[in-house]
Write a sequence for this structure.
């Protein structure tokens, strides 16, 4: 492709609202243009990379009998009424009304559509299992779109759905998908880890997220060295090993604690350690309030609370709600004398006694509060985030933390949608059964960004060979020089036979051309400059910066060797 005909609006400066490296480079390399918050156009370089990623995704899906379809983005609300999800999503679900006043959703995902599509066709166990997938734009009205393509409001997803007569059949496809995802991420050049994840509202029991390792990642992974244990920190189970340090129960004592609002302030006032304090938090679960007791040095894990109660509707109570229930401000809450709401405690609260807790009176706290004598709790549970260094649930050692970008997720869905939408098949006994489903997503546009996060230097992107927009970048330094232009034209014609070639034939200063080439990140570069008259060109590797002076008659072999060795 001749760069004089291309559309690559590179930038010298970066808009200051681009915080992540990939967002900055996507803009500087002229790969995307924002038209609204979280909404982007993909320009030629980005589109070519997306095509390459999608080709790899298609290959791996088809290798495990996935069949490609394309479903509409416009989803009739009736189907979301059938699944019961129309009322359960708020502003994130983009809704619209057509000219007849009928309501539609712009598809954030396609469980309802695919289930309604197959329920009339797959009526016998003999027709199962089936795996269908699509690659298509999704719409989710994120509250805070950020980091360019990492969190957009319109993005490209590969979403696959599988339908089974038995759990074993679902398990087999789940494993196939798990392996196919590993192949895809390896092939596109991503360093990633599959992590045990929480299935959340989507339902189902079993799910893994695929996390691309990157500091900008919004997810935290808890993993152990020397094992394949890795869990999203939302899900990472805490192994409770009792470490009881009780002292003789002392008398309950109320103390005036003016201005004390945080566990640290209370610890400082009492000359205690933070882990000797117990925090009391009020959480709204569905439509009722619940109190949680957590040690001062731990944090409440809202995802664990959600899965404990089996609901997505879990919010910290507001200050007004707290005052309404407890007649005290947050910061002075405690379990003593509380009988209107249930109290749950994290396992580790039972390790200590004579607790320092709020007195449910602003600016007053109790010391020596004791479970049993002064308050009751409904149940202990694993309600906190694991700390770095604590033992992993599978005993494989102390966990370490890493940031990750969720680039994919595989779910065992079960029959949540097939029951709600009456997608049944006749089993071998001729009995109607709901189909057992799996669903599997890859963030295709997010994957592109994650690759840039992992493959760049200060001058720009360095594309892995498998997804690079072009294999070779030919630069004619000064097209006004006949010898240079003629040789560059010739090399462009010759190499285009076996490689994808971007040919910078523009009437631009050399510096501009080299800056742009560094930004765009094509792995191999042939520079046709002053020595063209002597039949010598420069070959440069974008990744290592190495360069070689090569006589034209050795160029094909040199390029072939360097291309083979590219990662
Ligand atoms: O999408 C999934 C599960 C899997 C992921 C892989 C491909 C198939 N779906 C979960 N999820 C996430 N955000 C959503 C946002 C909105 Cl606004 C919505 F209405 C529904 C969903 C929703 O269901
Ligand atoms: Mg997540
Ligand atoms: Mg997810």
């Amino acid at each position: 492709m001749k760069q004089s005909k291309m559309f690559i609006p590179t930038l010298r400066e970066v808009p200051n609202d681009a915080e992540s490296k990939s967002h900055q480079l996507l803009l500087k390399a002229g790969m995307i243009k924002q038209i609204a918050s979280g909404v982007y156009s993909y320009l030629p370089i980005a589109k070519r990379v997306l095509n390459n990623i999608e080709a790899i995704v298609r290959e791996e899906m088809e290798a495990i009998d996935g069949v490609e379809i394309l479903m509409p983005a416009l989803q009739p609300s009736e189907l979301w009424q059938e699944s019961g999800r129309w009322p359960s999503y708020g502003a994130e679900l983009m809704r619209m009304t057509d000219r007849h006043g009928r309501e539609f959703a712009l598809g954030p995902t396609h469980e309802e559509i695919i289930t309604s599509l197959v329920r009339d066709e797959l009526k016998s166990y003999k027709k199962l299992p089936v795996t269908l997938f699509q690659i298509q734009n999704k719409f989710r009205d994120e509250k805070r779109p950020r980091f360019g393509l990492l969190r957009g409001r319109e993005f490209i997803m590969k979403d696959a759905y599988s339908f089974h007569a038995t759990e074993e059949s679902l398990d087999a496809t789940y494993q196939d998908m798990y392996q196919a995802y590993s192949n895809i991420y390896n092939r596109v050049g991503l360093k990633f880890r599959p992590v045990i994840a929480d299935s959340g509202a989507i339902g189902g029991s079993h799910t893994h997220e695929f996390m691309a390792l990157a500091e900008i990642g919004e997810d935290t992974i808890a993993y152990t060295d020397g094992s394949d244990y890795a869990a999203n920190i939302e899900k990472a189970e805490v192994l409770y090993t009792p470490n009881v340090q009780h002292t003789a129960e002392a008398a309950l004592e109320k103390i005036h604690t003016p201005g004390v609002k945080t566990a640290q302030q209370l610890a400082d006032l009492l000359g205690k350690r933070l882990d000797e304090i117990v925090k009391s938090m009020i959480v709204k679960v569905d439509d009722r309030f619940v109190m949680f007791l957590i040690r001062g040095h731990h944090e409440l894990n809202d995802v664990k609370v959600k899965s404990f109660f089996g609901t997505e509707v879990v919010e910290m109570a507001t200050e007004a709600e707290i005052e309404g229930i407890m007649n005290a401000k947050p910061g002075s809450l405690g379990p003593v004398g509380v009988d209107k709401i249930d109290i749950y405690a994290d396992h580790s609260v039972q390790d200590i006694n004579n607790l320092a807790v709020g007195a449910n009176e602003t600016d007053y706290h109790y010391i020596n509060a004791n479970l049993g004598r002064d308050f009751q709790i409904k149940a202990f549970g694993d309600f906190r985030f694991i700390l770095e260094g604590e033992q992993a649930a599978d005993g494989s050692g102390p966990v370490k933390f890493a940031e990750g970008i969720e680039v994919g997720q595989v779910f065992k869905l079960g029959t949540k949608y097939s029951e709600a939408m009456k997608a049944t098949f006749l089993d071998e006994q001729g009995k109607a059964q709901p189909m057992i489903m799996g669903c599997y997503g890859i963030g295709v546009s997010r994957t592109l960004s994650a690759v840039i996060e992992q493959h760049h230097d200060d001058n720009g992107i360095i594309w892995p060979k498998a997804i690079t927009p072009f294999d070779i970048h030919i630069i004619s330094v000064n097209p006004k020089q006949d010898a240079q232009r003629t040789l560059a034209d010739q090399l462009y014609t010759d190499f285009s036979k076996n490689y994808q070639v971007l040919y910078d034939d523009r009437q631009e200063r050399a510096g501009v051309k080299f800056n742009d080439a560094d930004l765009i990140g094509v792995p191999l570069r042939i520079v046709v400059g002053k020595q063209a008259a002597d039949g010598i060109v420069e070959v440069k590797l974008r990744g290592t910066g190495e360069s070689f002076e090569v006589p034209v008659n050795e160029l094909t072999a040199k390029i072939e060797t360097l291309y083979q060795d590219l990662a």
